[in-house]
Structures are given as C-alpha cells and as structure tokens.
Amino acid sequence: MTYKDLKIVYEDNHLLAVVKPYDVPVQADESGDADMLTMLKQYLVETYNKPGDAYLGLVHRLDRPTGGVMVFAKTSKAAARLCQQIRDGEVEKRYLAVVEGAPRYKADKLTCYLKKFPDTNTVKVVPALSEGAKYAELDYKVLCQKGDYSLLMVNLVTGRGHQIRVQLSNMGNPIVGDKKYGSKTNSHLSLWATELRFAHPVSGKEMTFRVYPPEVAPWTSFDLDAYLSVTIKNCY
Q1: Each residue of 113-154: pLDDT tens digit?
Q2: 3-class secondary structure, 37
Q3: CA–CA distance, 141 with 108 (Å, rounded to integer)
Q4: Neighbours of 82 (CB within 10 A)
C-alpha cells in the first residue's frame, strides 16, 4: 500500500483529513507494514516537492483494526491547537459499530475504568483505584436491529485505547469481528470512525468530516444513509 491508495477528504495549509483503511497502523510499528503517518508524509514530499522529511502532526489515533476518518496537522501550530481542543473535550468523535445481540437499553452512557496490559495488547475493565486505571466514558444509541446484529452510533467522550471495543463487550455486546473481545463472527472489526467535528485551528470555523464504512458485510445490512446525520449527545 502507498499514499495513492488512501482517500483524502480535505486539505488546506493546516489540515489533512484522510480515510484510514481497516488494518493499517497509524504510525510505524514492529510489523513493518505501511502506516498512515509515513505514507502521508511521502504524499506531502512528492506532491509539494519538499526536500527531506515533511512535517505532519499526529493529533489522535485509531486502533489498527478500526477504519474511518482521521485528521492530521500540517503545521506545528495547528497540531498544538488541535491537541488542546482534544484535551479540553472540544473535539467530537462519532463511530458506527455493529454489535452481536441487542443491547439492554436503546441508549445509554457507559462509564468505567480501563487498564492496558501490554504483554497481551489487551485492555480490561478494572476497579477505579487499580494502578494504571484510566476513566473511560462514551454514549451510545441503537439505530437499528437486524437478526442477531445491532447498529450503534457511539459518541466517544474519552479516547482510551480499545475503549469502544472493551466497553461494548463488557455490556455483553461485542463488536462483530472483534475476536479479541468476545466476538464469534469471522469478519473485519465492524467499528468505523464515521465523524469528526472540531474548530479549525487557525480560522476557528467549525469543521465536520463524515465518511461511510466500506460496502461490505455487515454494513450492507443497514440503511446507513438514514442514520449518518444522527446526533446522540446526552441521549441516555
């Protein structure tokens, strides 16, 4: 894979918004596989004839198995301001997820404490006072149920690694394809970063980027057009 295989949805002098495919790391790791940061730096070098290395700020992440929209900063000023917005909780992140079964509640707020276990690259729900525990919060709303699957819109309040995957599994509804956290279905991880909303780091203009999941199962079982404008904040 090269940058030519990536879909760029927006670019200006300060920002670069891109669709991250499934199973592509955000930055270089021990796998040696092509990663988003390296490919996009190469895009900037070749497109704008930049000598040497191009600057590109990584301001947020997606788990490797998760696809969807990401924004990168093309200047250090933009990176610093976007990181501050994230710290202040001013960046809205919404995800679509297809889960196994039907959640008990049609809409709810999930809160817990999570701890990462690097030896197994897993995250677990732990008591609040556990060493290394971090608070995690999200809202979800069930958009549709078909057969054994439910389509959820998730509003991510905190941004912990594996957070959505662990919290949905913990309530008894693992994400389809997430065998690490209890799914019995053999497919891609059915979790998609569908929307990012934030203030432009220079102009202050509200920026909204929304992208669709790929047209593959189980996404094709649902009428996504009917749901992608849904806002679920404070839906519980």
Answers
A1: 999 999 999 999 999 999 999 999 999 999 999 999 999 999
A2: helix
A3: 7
A4: 24
Q: Is 202 helix (H, G, I), strand (E, B) or coil?
A: coil
Token duo for residue 193: 């970063």
Find tokens 């019995």 and name the residue.
184
Do 27 and 58 meet the contact criterion of CB atoms below 8 Å apart?
A: yes
| Catalytically active residues, by annotation | 63
Single out the residue of 184, 191, 63 nearest to residue 122, CA to CA: 63
Q: How many Cα atoms within 13 Å fall on the side-chain side of residue 199? A: 13
Contacts of residues 116-119 at CB distance under 8 Å and 24 or more positions apart, as own/partner, are 116/161, 116/162
pTM exceeds 0.85 for this model:
yes
DSSP labels for 41-96?
HHHHHHHTT-SSPPP-EE-----TT-EEEEEEESSHHHHHHHHHHHHTT--EEEEE
Beta bridge partners of 94: 155, 195
Which residues 6+ apart lie within 8 Å of 81 measured at CB?
A: 201, 202
DSSP for 102-165 reads: --SSSEEEEEEEEEEETTTTEEEEE-TTSTT-EEEEEEEEEEEEETTEEEEEEEESS--TTHHH
Provide the residue count of the chain: 236
Name the helix (H) or strand (E) containing 11.
strand 7-11
